[in-house]
Amino acid sequence: MATVSRRARLADVHELAAGMPHVTRIDGPRGNTVYQVGGKSFVFFRTPRPDAFDADTGQRYTDVIVFWVPSESDKLALVQDPELPFFTTDHFDGHLSVLLRGSRIGELTHRELTEVVQDAWLSRASRKRGAEWLAAHPAP
C-alpha cells in the first residue's frame, strides 16, 4: 500500500531545488531566489509583474514561483488540470514553464512538488547530468 504524501510547503521548494545535483542558488536582480543547473534557471521566485495579478483587486501577485517543464504538452497538462494550482500568463506563451503562487503550494502533495522540481531540473540539466541522475534514481 502506498504511503500518503503530506502537503507541500514553501520551504520544500527550496529544499528540493537545492538538493538536486550541480545546483547553484543565486539572488536575482531584486533579491529573488533563483536555482540554476549549469548556469540555466530551472526554478525561480518571480518578482511582482503586471501579467500576474488578482482579477478582483488588480494587485500583482508577490508570491509567484516559476518552474521549467520538459515540453509544451507537459505545460498544458499542468495548467489545464483543474485539480492543480498551476497557471500561465500571456507573457509565458511559448516559454516552457508554469507558474505557481506560493500561497497555493499546499494544494500539492510533497510527492507532486518533488516531481515538478525534478522535471524542472531535468529539463535544464545537460543530457549527461540528466542521464546520470535518472540512472541513479529509477522510477518506482
Describe this structure in words.
The chain has 140 residues and is α+β, with helices and mostly antiparallel strands. It has one domain. The protein has four helices and five strands; from the N terminus they run αββββαβαα. It has helices at residues 10-19, 72-80, 110-124, 127-136, and strands at residues 23-27, 33-37, 40-45, 64-68, 97-101. It has a five-stranded antiparallel β-sheet. A hairpin with a 5-residue loop joins β1 (23-27) and β2 (33-37). α1 (10-19) runs parallel beside α3. The longest helix is centred in the C-terminal third of the chain and has 15 residues, at 110-124. The chain is globular and about 45 Å long. The model has no long low-confidence stretch (mean pLDDT 93).
Features:
alpha+beta; 5-stranded antiparallel sheet
* H/E series: HEEEEHEHH
In spatial order, strands of the major sheet run: 1-2-3-4-5
Poorly predicted runs are: none
Mean of pLDDT: 93
Q: Please describe the biggest sheet, giving its number of strands, its sense, and whether it closes into a barrel.
A: 5 strands, antiparallel
Shape: globular
How much of the sequence lies in strands comes to: 15-25%
How many strands appear in the DSSP assignment? 5
Helix/strand-derived class? alpha+beta
Helix content: 25-40%
Query: What does the radius of gyration come to?
Result: 15 Å
DSSP helical segment count: 4
Count of the domains: 1
Gap between N and C termini, in Å? 13 Å
Protein topology:
Layout: H1 10-19, E1 23-27, E2 33-37, E3 40-45, E4 64-68, H2 72-80, E5 97-101, H3 110-124, H4 127-136
